[in-house]
Amino acid sequence: xxxxxLEQVGLAATLIFALPVAVYGIQTIIxxxxxxxxxxxxxxxxxxxxPRRLTSxxxxxxxxxxxxxxxxxxGSDGTDGSDGDGET
Length: 88
What we know:
mainly alpha; membrane; transmembrane
């Protein structure tokens, strides 16, 4: 699945916050705190995965517009099978 420019920027912003949490989780696991380390790793993964999987109320109009534009562009490309000279 290809990401658009805005989606890439959003993912980068999410990773800025998720990577330190993941590093903390790994260090905590190495130091012997498996429960808190695993919890930190799970939170870091959820920080990245949930925004990509869940639909927020702000996403609904954008997805509806994307579907409508896709239907219009794919459905009416200006060709109806004739070459425009009146002969069939």
